[in-house]
């Protein structure tokens, strides 16, 4: 069996490759209508398709990993990444790029599956630090990937971005095949196809409503139909999951206080993280003459944002030690406190570029601690045979938070504008309101984190014993 350090390193690289896909097209997002000869409403699907694929595939991939082998599903997801990247790289029109980006979105399931693999193959004392490292890749991949994407876009054809993604996916595929051992723990039963279909339809409806509400109109029939229809389907799906012998997700396990409160806090922390991801780059890049921006280039702005991801990586060893000594609940509480501090700082100081840098570093502390704590809390509260599905559900909760933040903060910034050279741009008050919302949601995450039981319920199954 390969050295455990090599397994952790490969899974960390896989995690960074996964998170890199979500910042891959940020530098060309505004130019997509021109590059693809399509309307802005159509090119929005280049982003939306990735979001939908990620949300749908992640919990399903977790369950498939529990049943058929986690490494096997990781390899399938990486193969989809490579295929999608090649399709997009060879495309000159919007359809091929959307198809490629949809397939790229599937790779988001690699991170929760990688965390679950750690529990299966590492010595108990190494699990927490390794989980903290893999969790940090959620921020590191995006933070490092953004300036790389910006530089590639500035000096090369945009198709090179997708060839870069294809090459990265291929390298990671080989490393996983070579280093990561085959999963031996399998969950018995049949895969719940109807449950997977129901979850997919429900999530797509809700996320379409959230992500496209600004463009289609929040009270439009399409948005109301998607949102209410998705909620109805999810309600029926939950009722069905409680009545089948082999459900896609064990909702009774998900309802345990430690799991439930962790997932609710995950939604809130995802919202708080993405509030900064939407607001900070816009502030940094808006012209100084608008009185709301700093006039930086995309590359310079991405370098100001990048340290948050590096902070997450540096914190990972400390997170592991704190978790083993004091428990993961403390990490989640500390993470929420750091997020509250970050937004409190921006409400007081936001007149210099270094203010944004400091706030973003505090965001890095918050997400570094918080995202490391979440899978640790989950895996202390679920049977080992359900770690893939449970981590997938937790990743879905984070995604719901980030997608909701993207829609809400975009609506806040779009609803408070003034004209500048004939173009509406957000006002300083709009950014102030965004920071207020981010701070309030971070405070909510802190309150929920404090509600998580510090001790395991004695009636729960011991998490180290498979069912």
Automatic annotation (TrEMBL):
Annotated CDD domains: MFS_MMR_MDR_like (cd17504)
Question: Pfam family of this protein, just one?
Answer: MFS_1
Membrane found in the keyword field: yes
Q: Which GO MF term does the entry hold, naming one? A: transmembrane transporter activity
The record gives the membrane topology as: Multi-pass membrane protein
Q: Name the SUPFAM superfamilies on file.
A: MFS general substrate transporter
Matching InterPro entries: MFS (IPR011701), MFS_dom (IPR020846), MFS_trans_sf (IPR036259)
Where does this one sit in the cell? Cell membrane
Looking at the keywords, is Transmembrane helix present? yes
Sorted keywords for this record are:
Membrane, Transmembrane, Transmembrane helix
Tell me the protein's name.
Answer: MFS transporter
Taxonomic placement:
Bacteria, Bacillati, Actinomycetota, Actinomycetes, Micrococcales
């Amino acid at each position: 069996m390969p050295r455990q350090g090599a397994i952790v390193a490969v899974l960390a690289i896989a995690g960074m490759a996964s998170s890199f896909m979500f910042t891959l097209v940020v530098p060309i997002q505004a130019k997509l209508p021109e590059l693809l000869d399509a309307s802005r409403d159509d090119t929005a699907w280049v982003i939306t398709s990735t979001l939908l694929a990620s949300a749908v595939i992640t919990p399903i991939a977790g369950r498939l990993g529990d049943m058929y082998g986690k490494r096997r599903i990781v390899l399938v997801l990486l193969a989809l990444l490579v295929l999608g990247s090649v399709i997009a790289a060879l495309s000159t029109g919007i359809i091929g790029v959307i198809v490629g980006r949809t397939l790229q979105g599937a790779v988001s399931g690699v991170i929760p599956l990688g965390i679950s693999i750690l529990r299966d193959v590492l010595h108990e004392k190494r699990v927490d630090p390794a989980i903290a490292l893999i969790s940090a890749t959620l921020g590191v991949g995006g933070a490092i990937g953004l300036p790389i994407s910006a530089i590639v876009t500035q000096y090369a054809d945009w198709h090179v971005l997708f060839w870069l993604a294809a090459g990265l996916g291929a390298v990671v595929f080989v490393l996983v095949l070579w280093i990561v051992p085959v999963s031996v723990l399998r969950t018995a039963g049949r895969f719940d196809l109807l449950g997977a279909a129901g979850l997919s339809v429900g999530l797509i409806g809700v996320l379409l409503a959230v992500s496209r509400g600004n463009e289609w109109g929040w009270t439009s029939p399409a948005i109301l139909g998607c949102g209410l229809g998705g909620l109805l389907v999810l309600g029926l799906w939950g009722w069905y999951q409680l009545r089948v012998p082999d459900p896609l997700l064990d909702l009774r396990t998900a309802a345990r206080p430690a799991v439930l409160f962790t997932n609710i806090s995950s939604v809130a922390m995802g919202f708080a993280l993405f509030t900064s991801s939407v607001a900070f780059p816009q502030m940094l890049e808006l012209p100084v003459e608008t009185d709301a921006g700093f006039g930086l280039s995309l590359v310079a702005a991405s370098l100001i944002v990048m340290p948050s991801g590096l902070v997450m990586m540096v914190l990972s060893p400390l997170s592991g030690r704190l978790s083993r000594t004091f428990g993961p609940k403390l990490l989640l509480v500390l993470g929420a406190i750091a997020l509250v501090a970050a937004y409190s700082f921006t409400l007081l100081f936001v007149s210099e570029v270094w203010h944004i840098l400091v706030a973003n570093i505090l965001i890095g502390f918050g997400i570094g601690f918080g995202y490391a704590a979440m899978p640790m809390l989950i895996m202390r509260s679920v049977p080992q045979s359900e770690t893939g599905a449970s981590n997938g559900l937790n990743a879905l909760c984070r995604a719901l938070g980030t997608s909701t933040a993207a829609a809400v903060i975009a609506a806040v910034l779009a609803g408070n504008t003034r004209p500048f050279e004939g173009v509406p741009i957000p006002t300083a008050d709009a950014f102030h309101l965004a920071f207020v919302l981010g701070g309030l949601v971070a405070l909510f995450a802190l309150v929920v984190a404090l509600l998580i039981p510090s001790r395991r319920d004695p009636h729960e199954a011991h998490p180290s014993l498979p069912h």
